[in-house]
Amino acid sequence: MSFAPSSSDPKTEIMNQIRQEAAVANARQLVEKLNEHCFERCVPKPGASLSSGETTCYTTCMEKYMAAWNTVSRQYVARIQRESAAAPRY
Fold first, then answer.
1. Which residues contact 65 (CB under 8 A, 6 or more apart)?
2. Is residue 3 part of a domain?
3. How many domains does the chain have?
4. Is residue 22 assigned to a domain?
5. What is d(CA 88, CA 90) in angstroms, rounded to the nearest whole number?
6. b/e for 66-77, b at 16 or more Cβ within 10 A?
7. Tens of pLDDT, residues 31-89
8. 6, 23, 57, 61: which could join 12 in a potential S-S bond, CB 3.0 to 4.6 Å?
9. Is residue 54 part of a domain?
C-alpha cells in the first residue's frame, strides 16, 4: 500500500509514515501467524523437504487463513468507518 505524497504538512507526512509502518507490521504479523499455524498443522515431522501432501495442506491452509484475515480486516475497517462517521464532531 502506498500513499501519495502530500503537501509539506509535517503532520500529514508523519501520519502517512505511521500508516505505512502499521501496514508493514500487519503484513509481518500475517506471515508469522500463517507460518506458525499452517506449518504446525501441515508438517508434523519436519524433514529435508515437504511431501506433496504437506505442500497441498500448507497451500490450502494459507489460502484459507488469508481469506479469513481479509474478511476480518474488511469488517474491522468498515466498523471503524461507521463509528467514525457516527462520532460527534467538535
1. 33, 34, 37, 38
2. no
3. 1
4. yes
5. 6
6. eeeeeeeeeeee
7. 898 888 899 999 988 899 999 999 999 999 999 988 998 899 899 889 988 888 887 76
8. 6
9. yes
Give CA–CA dist 52/55, Å, rounded: 5
Asked if the structure places residue 56 within a domain, the reply is: yes
Contacts of 58 (CB under 8 A, 6+ apart): 38, 39, 42, 43, 50
The Cα 58–Cα 60 span in angstroms is 6
Three-state DSSP at 4 gives: coil
Q: How far is CA 82 from CA 5, 16, 47, in A?
A: 27, 21, 48
The CATH number linked to 20 is 1.10.287.810
Domain extent for 82 = 10-86
Q: How many residues does the chain have?
A: 90
Name the residue with cell 501496514.
23
For residue 41, give every residue at least 6 positions away whose Cβ sits within 8 Å of its Cβ, in sequence order, or none: 57, 61
Quote the crossing angle between the two packed helices 52-86 and 10-42, to the nearest 10°.
Answer: 150
Please give the grid coordinates belonging to residue 60: 490450502
